[in-house]
Design goal:
The protein has about 250 residues and is α/β, with parallel strands linked by helices. The chain has nine helices and eight strands. The mean pLDDT is about 90.
Length: about 250
């Protein structure tokens, strides 16, 4: 019996971060539509180009810096899949904040258990109900200083904190983040016991995304339909892969 191992299609470098996937896409195809979503109020479809999404991500990243978020700071996202989820995720990745996704179906008790373990400084909620749950949890966890509700213009509120943060300061923070820095802590479903947090680096994710392109090539004209929750590792990787489209 012989074992055959193919050479990797792409060898990651220290500069291969999740944020770099988006920034390179914006530099390569700035006017391509990178995200489309239906507005909950008007039911009209909205879209964002790679340049527009990158600009929004940078605004939010500045706001996070203004809030005192830095590399290694835990940030919780408790929300269904939405455009804001992706923006917050890329913004955290840009400056080295560690995203901790919570399934939208998780109970208040399950969410409180995750908060207890990771002690996030900031939490994002997908709607008013989840924001209320997080506010109730925050009473007993003073380390969680802010809860931002996507449905109440939470990202705009974060951006307001970044008006005094320059592009140079943001770029310096981005430059310090490397491939082996922690990207996320993803909790297992708990089907085999208490959910456990799995630590993944930027290199873990970018390597997977780059190698997938060997077997499932896509380009900027392909359309990706998101149906799994972004709190699921597979769906999140698929979203990063879409940003990679070449």
């Amino acid at each position: 019996m012989r074992e055959h191992v193919e050479e990797p299609r792409y060898v990651t470098t220290d500069d291969d971060t999740v944020y770099s996937l988006l920034s390179k896409r914006a530099a390569r195809t700035p006017d391509d539509i990178i995200a489309e979503w239906q507005d909950d109020n008007t039911h009209q479809w909205r879209s964002a180009t790679a340049t527009e999404m990158l600009s929004r991500v940078r605004e939010v990243a500045k706001g996070l810096l203004g809030l005192g978020v830095k590399a290694g700071t835990m940030v919780l996202i408790y929300s269904p899949t939405c455009y804001e989820w992706g923006v917050a995720d890329f913004a955290c990745a840009a400056i080295g904040a560690v995203v901790v996704p919570v399934y939208e179906t998780d109970s208040a008790r399950q969410t409180a258990g995750i908060v207890e373990e990771v002690d996030p400084a900031i939490a994002f909620a997908g709607d008013f109900q989840r924001a209320q749950t997080l506010e109730q949890i925050r009473v007993n966890h003073p380390g969680m200083k802010y809860v931002f509700n996507f449905k109440a213009d939470g990202l705009d509120a974060v951006v307001d904190f970044g008006h005094g943060v320059s592009d140079e300061t943001l770029d310096a923070a981005i430059a310090r983040i490397k491939a082996d820095d922690l990207l996320t802590v993803v909790y297992t479903s708990g089907s085999t016991g208490k959910p456990k947090g799995v630590m993944l680096t930027h290199r873990n994710v970018v390597s997977n995304v780059q190698q997938i392109s060997r077997y499932m090539p896509i380009n900027e004209n392909d359309v990706f339909l998101s149906y799994l929750p972004l709190s699921h590792s597979f769906e999140r990787s698929a979203a990063y892969y879409h940003a990679l489209a070449t």
